[in-house]
Amino acid sequence: MIHSGKALSIDVPVVLRHVKCVHSIGALQFEGDLPAAIFHLQLITGDIAEWGADCEVIAVFHTNAGHVTLNDSAYNAARNVATGNPYRYLVADLVKRGVKVELCGATARVNDWGNADLLPDIKVNRDAMARTIQLVQQGFVKITE
């Protein structure tokens, strides 16, 4: 992101002590070459660290974004490339920041992906819709990416 150095006054400062959010990521939209959903997760985890807030941040990848959770060989097969998963380091960084990353079980079944096809620390849920409903009922704020 390019910064011009222009003065910016924040009119609505936000400081949260508790953050419970689920990010439903069904497709990738990009800001440059970076998926916006990953940028937003980096932004909120940076805010959480600055605030010293208690948090639970869960990212649920599904539908046309499920491939983000794949290891290199599975990614190559799924995307018909030989590059490996270009998102693997970004996902690993999110996990280091405390984000729990999940793959929709329905997306995995449709694509014939197994647990061995996934990056480390990825959990598989029943399906994205059921998981999101469960988390919202537990007080999580749903962020749709």
Keywords:
145 residues, 34% helix, 5 helices, Hypothetical Protein Ychn, Chain: A, 5-stranded parallel sheet, alpha/beta, 7 strands, two-stranded antiparallel ribbon
Structural description of this entry:
With 145 residues, the protein is α/β, with parallel strands linked by helices. It has one domain (20-144): DsrEFH-like (Hypothetical Protein Ychn, Chain: A), CATH 3.40.1260. It has 5 helices and 7 strands; from the N terminus they run E-E-E-H-E-H-H-E-H-E-H-E. A 5-stranded parallel beta sheet has the order 6-5-4-1-7, sandwiched between helices. The protein has a two-stranded antiparallel ribbon with strand order 2-3. A hairpin with a 2-residue loop joins strand 2 and strand 3 (34-35). The longest helix has 16 residues, at 36-51. The chain starts with 17 loop residues before the first strand and ends with a strand.
Can you describe this structure in just a few lines?
Strands 6-5-4-1-7 form a five-stranded parallel β-sheet, with helices on both faces. Strands 2-3 form a two-stranded antiparallel ribbon. It contains five helices and seven strands, in the order βββαβααβαβαβ. The chain is an alpha/beta fold and 145 residues long.
